[in-house]
Amino acid sequence: MPSPREIAAPAKAKGGTDAALKPVVLAIQRLENVVETETQLLLEGANPDLSEINARKSRGLYDFTRAMNKASALADAPTLKTLQPLLDRLKQKLERNCEALQLHLRAVGELSEIIRTAIETQEADGTYSMKHARAGHAL
What we know:
The chain is mainly alpha-helical. 80% of the residues lie in helices and 0% in strands. The relative contact order is 0.13.
């Protein structure tokens, strides 16, 4: 994996466009950190603050988009192409994150099914049936 410095090296030779790539590289790194943190927490079975993580991902995407738009205006296509390894690495981390999120959602679905079944079973014995209570029948 090339480092941000190695990726930016060709840009320095192109007359200072490395300054245009630096914000893009930093935005990619911040997005990677957020995604890696979320993935790790999900796989460890922790209870991450998904709204806070989502806010950090949204901010990271916003920063990346702004930096990329600015870099596109200042750097030529071959220079921008030097970002491809970083983008590929981010894509891999996002795919792993997606798998972890899907696993988490399946677990939540299974848990809700267990709870639903337990409630239905409890109501089926007639002891505390909400159906009877709503109909005005004495228990």
